[in-house]
């Protein structure tokens, strides 16, 4: 796929005229990473954003108590690193690491600011992306505030939805280990294993050597809606 075609697929650039995309194709810098390589490091100064054109990356953050938390995965086409170039501090808020072979098109802050001034649609797309992330975080806070079962259901159904949208083969097979799940919901191995066994007995999922297979994603998503509010 050509650079121009990759730009047209990215949600940040939807609706931009062909002239803008052609201009953008000439100024972005292509980067390629192997699985395990770091694209962005938390607390580094950020002078660019990345348009993810191929592959999957994992976003994680280390808290003040040096505890790591996996925030989620981003599948191509996607946007990475926009927070730092919008922030006055310019600090990266998380670490982004390649899970698969990854390709990105890197756009520097100065070029991005020029495009924002010339093409207001870009600002609208960016606002929509940030609004979607805020909504997701609100839903996550609600699910995580209920119990481990609701938290796991939220993580699994969201990842399944991402894989469907990215047209990943076998989207119901989530490549997650117990350790991965622990880092996502900040829970102990014992608690995660106990709840996973419960969900498996209910026929909602199956745990295997290569990850977690969702057998009934719709029923799993309903768990979040059926949980009682805290204090009830």
Number of strands: 11
Instruction: List unreliable stretches of 5+ residues.
Output: none
What value does the Rg take, in angstroms?
19 Å
Strand order of the biggest β-sheet: 1-8-3-6
* Largest sheet: number of strands, sense, barrel closure: 4 strands, antiparallel
- Quote the distance from N terminus to C terminus: 53 Å
- Approximate strand percentage: 15-25%
Q: Encode the helix/strand succession as letters.
A: HHEEEEEEHEEHHHEHHEEH
The helix fraction, in percent, is: 40-55%
Silhouette: globular
Q: Which structural class fits the helix and strand makeup?
A: alpha+beta
Mean pLDDT: 90
Total of helices: 9
Give structural notes.
There is one protein chain. The chain is α+β, with helices and mostly antiparallel strands and 232 residues long. The chain contains 9 helices and 11 strands. Strands 1-8-3-6 form a 4-stranded antiparallel beta sheet. A 4-stranded antiparallel beta sheet has the order 2-7-4-5. A hairpin with a 5-residue loop joins strand 4 and strand 5. Helix 1 packs across helix 2 and helix 6 packs across helix 9. The longest helix is centred in the middle third of the chain and has 27 residues. It is globular.
């Amino acid at each position: 796929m050509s650079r121009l075609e990759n730009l047209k697929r990215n949600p940040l650039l939807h609706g931009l005229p062909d002239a803008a995309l052609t201009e953008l194709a000439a100024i972005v810098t292509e980067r390629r990473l192997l699985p395990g390589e770091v694209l962005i490091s938390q607390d580094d100064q950020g002078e660019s954003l990345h348009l993810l054109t191929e592959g999957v990356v994992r976003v994680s953050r280390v808290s003040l108590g040096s505890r790591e938390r996996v925030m989620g995965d981003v599948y191509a086409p996607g946007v990475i690193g926009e927070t730092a170039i919008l922030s006055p501090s310019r600090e990266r808020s998380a670490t982004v690491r390649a899970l698969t072979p990854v390709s990105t098109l890197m756009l520097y802050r100065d070029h991005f600011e020029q495009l924002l001034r010339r093409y207001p649609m870009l600002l609208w797309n960016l606002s929509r992306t940030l609004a979607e992330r805020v909504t997701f975080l609100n839903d996550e806070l609600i699910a995580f505030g209920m119990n481990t079962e609701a938290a796991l259901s939220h993580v699994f159904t969201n990842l399944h939805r991402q894989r469907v949208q990215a047209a990943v083969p076998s989207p119901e097979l989530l490549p997650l280990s117990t350790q991965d799940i622990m880092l996502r919901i900040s829970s102990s191995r014992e608690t995660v294993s106990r709840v996973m066994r419960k969900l498996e007995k209910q026929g909602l999922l199956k745990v295997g050597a290569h990850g977690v297979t969702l057998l009934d994603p719709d029923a799993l998503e309903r768990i979040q809606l059926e949980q009682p509010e805290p204090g009830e």
